Amino acid sequence: MKILAIESSCDETAAAVIGDDCEILSNVVVSQVDIFAAYGGVIPEVAARSHLEVILPVIHKALKDAVLTKDDIDYIAVTHTPGLLGSLLIGTLTARMLAILWDKPLYAVHHLKSHIYANWLNARVEDNALSVQHGCVSPHLKNRRKHSPSSQATILHKKSLSSVSVSSQSDLPEFPLLALVVSGGHTQIIYMKKHNKFEIIGTTRDDAVGECFDKVAKILGLPYPGGPSIAECAKAGDVNKYRLPHPKVGGLDFSFSGLKTAVLRAVQKELGVPINTPSYELAGKLAEQQRADFAASFQETACEILAEKLEMALEAHMGVKSLVVAGGVSANKVLREKALKRLSVGSDGISRKVYFPELKFAGDNAAMVGAAAYYEILSGVEPTDPYVLNIAPRQEIA
Ligand code: AMP
Ligand code: MG
Questions:
Q1: Could you give phi then psi for residue 190, rounded to 5 degrees?
Q2: What separation in Å is there between the alpha carbon of 7 and the centre of ligand 2?
Q3: Confidence (pLDDT) at 350
């Protein structure tokens, strides 16, 4: 089975070819992060136009890297929900067009499913495999990089895939499992009884945790995207310097907007300025050590909140065999350490494995879309009609 997968839900244009057992035959990602670093966030119209510029060269490169032609492809898969409307449209319309022209079955994949299934990619990477290369052969993409010097196409070649830690096929997550999805737009705990069965048991009532990282980074004057900037800055900080509150949300739900406001108030208090001082006036007044201490205290609190809720979820779902962490924030080291330390053995004394995607698969990519489609196909899900498939900027996983 060979699946050509396409992802364009936010600010990464990506295409990959996935083979049997989720083997990665090629994986191409062109990120717009450098474009949006200048603005401090994603501008949807600009993102859509950037996708349009590169999507065909990216798909072409994915086929070329896999040493395949369209005739070798059995299925096409694409992210159709949730995400930015214009961004989703570019990937979805491209996939529909290819499915019709090439007469291939089309699978429409939910973005959060893909993030979860990034954890099934790990085990499939060959040991002599993956090194990350920067640059892209397409002249079109080369020109684009000239305009935006630090923007990079990250290309993972099957044949040069080395530095990746390899797990065996038996080292895949086992069901039933709990998935913590932590991204720029979502914070959810999902119970999976088996492949392709999702039950949301906890969700954020306001901001997503990634969004909170991004907003706190802005308050502290750290560059976009906020998650990696905060993680880096926090290395020099004291996690106990500032006491930040844990939200009082019942059950397994989350709330992160209060934590963001708590950081804002704590910064204002530390600087001795009134609470109506706008956040953009604060960063310039912070000393480096203060910034690091705020970053460290915030990161610790945010990750602690996630770990606490996961502990509660595990207590409420005895018999869970694996814990899977997914989405952009799953790259966070403090979260990884907390999850491994606190959740590998539950209060029931039962040990369970905790899975994270390889760092390169934590952010948006198309290999994970292919992995999700692979398990949809194996689960007997019917393909979608390429003439009618629509996008949905917001839609729950189901
Ligand atoms: P996604 O929505 O899944 O593409 O993930 C993007 C989100 O992940 C953004 O909000 C980033 O700030 C966040 N993120 C990326 N890396 C990290 C990290 N190391 N720590 C915390 N958040 C991160
Ligand atoms: Mg994402």
A1: -120, 130
A2: 10
A3: 76
